[in-house]
Specification:
Keywords: Cell membrane, Membrane, Transmembrane, Transmembrane helix. The chain is mainly alpha-helical. The protein has helices spanning about 25-35, 40-45, 45-55, 55-80, 90-95, 100-115, 120-135, 140-155, 160-190, 200-205, 210-220, 235-265, 270-275, 280-290, 295-330, 345-365, 370-405, 410-435, 435-440, 445-470, 470-475, 495. Helix 4 (about 55-80) packs across helix 18, helix 5 (about 90-95) packs across helix 17 (about 370-405) and helix 7 (about 120-135) packs across helix 8 (about 140-155). The longest helix is centred in the middle third of the chain and has 36 residues, at about 295-330. Mean pLDDT is about 85; it is low at about 1-10 and about 480-500.
Length: about 500
């Protein structure tokens, strides 16, 4: 794991600021990949993809990764020109104007909060299932979720490099157990010998592939948050694009490889039946067979840590979005405070933890199921919101570069973002048309969940109109000027000798 350095404490009288030079490429990638929760996605969702798409499901993850890599071309090109901490909304403001930017900012807040707060339900249910499987204890979910809120709140309160170290350890553990399963399957040669039938066109071009693509795109949620850490990155013009491509490439290839090994574990003829009869136990059964019961027990525990890692990654992203909006004057200025010792946006973090606690308590008081309702009903609008932001950002790229002088090529500024916009719009349609597979809810509930995203964006447009009338200075300056990157910390002699990624 790379050694990180950070800025010295600000001089007396200087307002505390985020730590500069604290994150390298791998640190940022840890945040992004951890947010995706690879182990939870594979053990919890991939079996359903196999049921719906058959043995060609691994290709769905490759196609989703390829689409998002195309999106990353224009996105990272624009990241060299937009230097603020507002990420999505800053990009959309520059390309589509301040009204769309304010709408995007509100959508980002709701989207990222939805992606995080809903997962506390998953933390409660996953911990309950793990305790039941390993000890026979029927652990209630609410105390676990509340304890998780405190743990994640503390992690966000600490410095960003502290979070990077924690996520590095947790990510290595959860991907390691999946790699161990894959190694066991490959060494044994699978159930009936290794086969590449998953990649044959006849097994990919089937009706269920559309549903697989919907699941696959959802599995990458949060990868774009690399740009949120620009102000804390070392050499951000290089670090942020590298981390983005690293995260997308790793997730796409890793997901496809692990799903393919699951097919090999049961065989082309049996895997769909096995996934359909016990989707929740598919990966546990495979790792028990090819590695041992102890590995299945470890996987139970690591699913819980995978969820914690995802929560911490999203919490840190939300905190930086909130800080940027408080600095813009859209959120209360009181939230635009950075901890003097940890260099963390701690006030936004406290506010986010309070909000998460309130939502969890409301669902608990209503007797809601932590998985089917708290997770799925809160997470789904969050996922759709982030996908909509990706689409808006892709549309913003060519419009931005039409208005500014630059030396970027047309492939990066026009061709790739337009292609990404078409592909992302298709992905959103696929997800919405298969929303019942994500939620298991009624058509009425699904309609409400799907309309949250346009409703929030329209509320953002209304907020923009209000700002334009009542606070024109905030509206005029919203995302318009880049926030200069602070000077990097001057390393000590010892730090200069340490390796950097």
């Amino acid at each position: 794991m790379p050694v990180t350095t950070s800025s010295p404490r600000p001089a007396e009288g200087t307002p505390p600021a985020l730590r500069t030079g604290a994150l390298g490429t791998s640190d940022i990638a840890f945040f992004v990949v951890s947010a995706a929760a690879p182990l939870t996605v594979m053990a919890g969702v991939a079996p359903l993809a196999l049921v719906l798409g058959g043995i060609g499901a691994p290709v769905g993850y490759l196609l989703a990764g390829l689409t998002l890599a195309v999106f990353a071309v224009g996105f990272t090109t624009m990241s060299r020109h937009v230097r603020g901490g507002g990420a999505f909304y800053a990009y959309i403001t520059r390309g589509l104007g301040p009204a769309a930017g304010v709408g995007a900012a509100l959508l980002a807040l709701v989207g990222y909060n939805g992606m995080e707060i809903g997962v506390y339900g998953l933390l409660g249910s996953a911990t309950h299932d793990t305790a039941l499987a390993l000890t026979g204890t029927d652990l209630p979910w609410l105390p676990v979720a509340l304890a998780g809120l405190l743990v994640i709140g503390y992690g966000g309160y600490r410095s960003i490099d502290f979070g990077a170290k924690v996520l590095g350890v947790l990510l290595v553990a959860e991907t390691g157990i999946l790699a161990l399963l894959a190694a066991g399957v490959l060494i044994e040669g699978g159930a009936h010998g290794l086969s590449l039938a998953s990649f044959a066109p006849g097994n990919v071009l089937v009706p269920g592939t559309a549903a697989v693509l919907a699941f696959a795109f959802a599995a990458f949620t949060g990868f774009e948050s690399t740009v949120i850490y620009r102000r804390e990155a070392r050499d951000p013009d290089r670090t942020v694009p590298r981390a983005t491509y690293l995260a997308v490439g790793f997730l796409g290839l890793f997901y496809a490889f692990i799903v393919w090994t699951a097919v090999q574990a049961f065989g082309d003829e049996r895997v769909v039946e096995a996934a359909g009869s016990d989707p929740a136990g598919l990966f546990f059964s495979a790792i028990t067979t090819y590695v041992g019961g102890w590995a299945a027990d470890a996987m139970h525990v690591l699913i819980v840590t995978s969820v914690l890692a995802s929560l911490l990654a999203f919490h840190n992203a939300i905190n930086r979005y909130g800080l940027a909006l408080a600095e813009e004057g859209v959120l209360p200025r009181a939230l635009a405070r950075v901890h003097p010792r940890h260099g963390s946006p701690y006030r936004v973090g406290i506010a986010q933890t309070v909000l998460g606690t309130a939502v969890v308590l409301v669902f608990a008081a209503a007797g809601a199921d932590p998985y089917r309702q708290l997770l799925l009903w809160v997470n789904t609008p969050g996922m759709l919101g982030l996908m909509a932001l990706q689409l808006l950002a892709a549309l913003a790229v060519p419009l931005y570069f039409r208005r500014v002088s630059h030396q970027e090529g047309a492939l990066r500024t026009v061709v790739a973002p337009v292609a990404a916009a078409v592909l992302l719009a298709t992905a959103i349609v696929l997800v919405i048309t298969h929303l019942d597979l994500f939620t298991g809810a009624s058509a009425t509930v699904n309609t409400v969940l799907a309309t949250v995203v346009p409703a929030v964006f329209l509320a953002g447009l209304a907020l923009a109109a209000w700002l334009r009338r009542r606070r024109p200075e905030v509206y005029a300056g919203f995302g318009a000027e880049p926030v200069p990157d602070p000077l990097p910390a001057t390393p000590t002699a010892t730090e200069s000798a340490l390796p950097r990624d």
